[in-house]
Amino acid sequence: MGLEFKTVFCGKKFPNPAVLPSGFLGVNAEVLLRVLDEGGAGAVTMKSIGLVEREGNPNPTVVPWEHGVINAVGLPTPGIENLNDEWQGLNGRMDRVIASILGGSFEDFEEVAKAVAVHKPALIEPNISCPHAKGHGQAFGLRAEDAAKVTEKVKNAVGKIPVMPKMTPQAHDIGEVAKACVDAGADAICAINTVGPGMLINIEARAPVLANKRGGLSGPAIKPIGVRCVYDIYEATGGEVPILGMGGISHGRDLIEYAMAGASMYGIGTAIHYTRDLDVFGDVLGETEKWMNQEGVKNLKDVVGVAHK
Amino acid sequence: MDNHVIVKIKKIEQECSDIKTFWFEQELNASPGQFVMVWLPGIDEKPFTLSSIGNESAISVQKRGIFTEKMHKLKEGDEFGVRGPFGHGFHFGKTTKPLLVGGGCGNANLTALAEMLAEHGKKPAYVLGARTADLLPYEKRLEKISDLYITTDDGSKGEKGFTTQKVEELLGKEGFDCVFACGPEVMLVPLLEVCKKKGIECQFSLERFMKCAVGLCGECCINGKLVCVEGPVFDKKHLEQLTELGKFARTKSGKLVDLGEYSKGNKC
Questions:
Q1: What kind of fold does domain B5-86 have according to CATH?
Q2: The domain spanning residue A89 has which CATH number?
Q3: Residue ranges of chain B assigned to CATH 3.40.50.80
Q4: Closest residue in chain B to residue A202, using alpha carbons only
Q5: pLDDT digits (tens, 9 = 90+) for A90-122
Q6: Nearest-CA distance A163 → chain B (Å)
Q7: A–B CB contacts, 8 A cutoff, strictly below
Q8: What is the C-alpha separation between B120 and A94, in angstroms, rounded?
Q9: Is A130 considered catalytic here?
Q10: What is the distance between the terminal CA atoms of chain A, rounded to a whole angstrom?
C-alpha cells in the first residue's frame, strides 16, 4: 500500500483515508495510538468529549445482533477536566486525531470546542447525531437551523481548525442539513451516525435487550442508508465539500461504494467486532487496492463521486 | 453466542459467607478464564468468569452491590440471561507443574482451571487465600483435585498471612513452571514481583468495568490493552507492561481514577 492512498482532507494530510469513528475504542490515548500504529488507520476519532463528566446509560449498552450492533452507550465522557492523561498521551500525534465533541446546548458546544481546540486536533467533529442521549446529539441535528447554529458557534470558537459536523440519517432531509452547516462555516461533513433508534426484544425474557430500550444501529445492515446519505450530501453541496463517509464498511467493496457516492475518507468501526481486532483497517484498504488494480484505477480520488455522473 | 440466552438455575450453592454459585444447563464451549455477560432484565448486565465448565456451567457471584444482591435473592428455577463466552482464557497446554493462586472471588475461574488440569492429569498445587475462614470458597472441590494450601489474613484457617508469602515459600522448594492467578490487584502486584524475582512464567486474570465485551467500546482498557478481547487473562510479558495494574482503572464515564476510588464506585 502506498501513494494511491495518501489523502488530503480539509488541507490536512493523512497516510490513508481509513478512520476510526467516534465512539469506538476512543476512551484512552494508548488504545487510539495502537489503532494508528498497529491497525494502520489514517486517523482516529476520540470518543465525544463533553464539558462535564457523564456516566452514560446502564448496561446492557452494546449488543451485537445478526446484521450489526445495537448500542445505547449514552455519551459517557470523563469531561474536559479529566482528560489530561489522554492529551498527554496523544501529544505529538494530534495531526492524526479527530476530536468529537458533545453538548446539551449551543453554549456547551462553544465552550467545549474552545477547550478542545487548545490541543490542536486535525479536525473537530460536533456530534449532532447520537440517537441515544436525551437532549444531546441528534437533538441538534434533525433541523437545519439547529445544526447550522452549532456549526457557527463551534467554528467561531476554534480558529483555523476545520469543523466537520456529524450528520444523523434520521434528519428528514440530510442534504439540506449538511448544506446549512456548510453555509454556516463547516469545512467538511461526517455521515452517518447510527440509525434508528431501533429495539431488540429478547422473547424469552419478554423484555427489550438494552437497558435504554432504544438504541442506534450500526454495521452491515445500515450500509445502504449511509451510502444514500453521502450521495444526498454530495449532491446538496455540489460535490465541493469533503465528506467522511461511514456506516457498515466491512470490506473494500463497501469503501468503494462510499467513494462513488462522494466520500473521500471512510470510517470503519463496527467491523472491528467481526474480525475482532485492528487488522480490519489494513484488510479493507488491501481489498480496495486489489479492486483498484483490477480496474486500472491509479488513485482512489479518481472514483470519488463517480456515481453522480 | 452474540445474543443473550435465557438460562434456568438448576442448583445454587453457598460457597462461603458472601459467594454463591449458580449452576445452569447450558454448554458454553468455554475454556477456564473466559467470561460471560450476565443479564438481569431491568437491573443490569455484568461480566462473570465461569466457575465450572462442561455440560453444566456455573458462575459464582460475590455479594457486593445492587446487581449481586439481586443475584443472591434468586432461587433454583429462576432465570437470567448470558452471552458469551468472551475473551482469552488461561493457556495451560504447556504447563507440567502448575501453581494456582486465588484470592477471594478470584478463585472462581481458577477452580474451573484446577478441574481442567486435574482432568488432563496435571494435578496442580493451589494456594487458596481469603481475609478470614468464612470467606474461603471452593475448599471441598479443591481438596479432591489439588495439593491445597490455605492462607487467611487473620489466621482463622490455614496459615496466617498472604498468599504471596506461601507462594514464595513453595517456589523455593518445588519446580513449578507457571503461576496462574486471579484475585484483588493488591495481591496480584506483589505476586508479579515474586514471579519476576524467581524468573517463573505467570498468567493473571484481570477485571475492569465492561460494556460491549467484544472489543468495540474500549471501556475496559488497562493501558492500551482491551481486557474483554485481549484478556481477561494476560501473560507475564504483557503484565509487566501494564503500569496501571494495581494503581488505576476507568469508571463508567471513562475517567481514569485510582483503584480505591474505582472499587468504591464499582459496587456490582
A1: Elongation Factor Tu (Ef-tu); domain 3 (2.40.30)
A2: 3.20.20.70
A3: 98-259
A4: B4
A5: 999 999 999 999 999 999 999 999 999 999 999
A6: 24
A7: 130
A8: 51
A9: yes
A10: 28
